[in-house]
Amino acid sequence: MGNKITGNISGAKSLKRSKTGRLAALILSLALLICFSVGCGKKEENPNEPRLLLGFSQIGSESAWRIGNTRDIEEQADNYGVSLMLENANQKQENQIAAIRRFIAYKVDVIAFSPIVEEGWDNVLQEAADAGIPVILVDRDINTQKEGLTTCLIGADFYKEGVMAAEYLIRKADSLELDHVNIVEISGTINSTPMRQRQAGFYDTIANDPRMTVLESIDGDFLKSRGAECMKYLLETYGDDIDVVFSHNDEMTLGALPVIEKAGITPGKDIIIISIDGGQEAINVLMEGKINCVVECTPKLGKALMETALKLKGGETVDPLIHPEEQVFSDEMDLNDLAPRGY
Ligand code: GYE
Predict the structure, then answer these.
(1) Which CATH code of 3.90.1150.10, 3.40.50.2300, 1.10.3720.10, 2.60.40.1820 fits the domain covering 158-297?
(2) Which member of 34, 88, 162, 173 lies 3.0 to 4.6 Å from 202 by CB, making a disulfide possible if both were Cys?
(3) Mind giving me the DSSP string for 50-97?
(4) DSSP per residue over 104-138, as a string?
(5) For 140-169, how does the pLDDT look when each residue is reduced to its tens digit (9 = 90+)?
(6) Which of 148, 87, 136 minimizes the C-alpha distance to 109?
């Protein structure tokens, strides 16, 4: 009997359920119909809502390269719907460290920065790691004994740039049939990755050529004004002995050229001029014949940065090293059809 009552009760319930069920099914189908017709079948991304918050500490505004790099990162952040907190450190490491601390306090999704020099980042990066915020190195590397403080590096192969600069010089010395080549080097910021690696690539490549001598290497800090000062000092010290100026960036080269001309020397003819970056102004001067060779270093790292940051936010693994493709522009080629450089 208990069973029957139970059966009756359960029968009544199931009758009730089936009525409710039919109503629910109707509501559900109506909802689905509305959803499909207005496109709410999946969770829509709100175009006004950023996909991620990226804190980026830029070194400064020392060169056309750097300004082009900042602009590219801003443009690509817009393209990818990334909200960018951009801080310019005005060439000071302590400003970069303070910016990274602000990004941590703000709880950004991802931190990116271009370290002005390689040393001295462990503490602040440990703080980012403790806060669970992934860090991307852009353009330059750091030197650390600690594992896992950063996720990846997106930047040029500076060693290869130095190699390409030296290979050009060896070809040029061959074509001019030079039996000795005295080089002065105006280097980028001491202890920065491009300075160290461009120098290493260049030195390693000329090492086996007995014609090559580096008279002096001097720190021009990637700045135009320093390029001019360095060149003045080098001309006062070595005068006519200088056969080649190897300058680590266009800005310093553009600073050095008027000093050379003022001394009555013709750059590009009396002295071989080799530069790195490939900004429009240097390419124009190369086409005028006052620079002999410019090794390209592209500042356009924004796209790779946004794609990597989005992957990190999505919990995906990323490539530990992304190098853009780069080339050499020189007086060995016709540059008339070269597309505008964009920086
Ligand atoms: O060559 C120079 C700049 O780190 C690659 O920094 C960059 C260098 C670039 O300011 O112009």
Answers:
(1) 3.40.50.2300
(2) 162
(3) -SEEEEEEE--S-SHHHHHHHHHHHHHHHHTTEEEEEEE-TT-HHHHH
(4) HHHT-SEEEE--SSSSS-HHHHHHHHHTT--EEEE
(5) 999 999 999 999 999 999 999 999 999 999
(6) 136
Same topology between domain 52-156+300-326 and domain 158-297: yes
Of residues 278 and 22, which shows the higher confidence score? 278
Candidate from 63, 186, 252, 343 with most ligand 1 atoms within 8 A of CB, to mutate: 63
Collapsing DSSP states into helix, strand and coil, what is residue 187? strand
Q: pLDDT tens digit string along 277-315?
A: 999 999 999 999 999 999 999 999 999 999 999 999 999
CB distance 282 to 291 below 8 Å = yes
Assign a CATH topology to domain 52-156+300-326.
Rossmann fold (3.40.50)
**Tens digit of each residue's pLDDT (9 = 90 or more) over 177-203:** 999 999 999 999 999 999 999 999 999
Q: Quick count: other Cβ atoms within 10 Å of Cβ 320? A: 9
Residues with CB under 6 A from ligand 1: 62-63, 65-66, 139-140, 156, 194, 222, 249, 251, 276-277, 297
Best mutation site among 66, 199, 323 for ligand 1, i.e. most ligand atoms within 8 A of its Cβ? 66
pTM score, whole prediction: 0.86
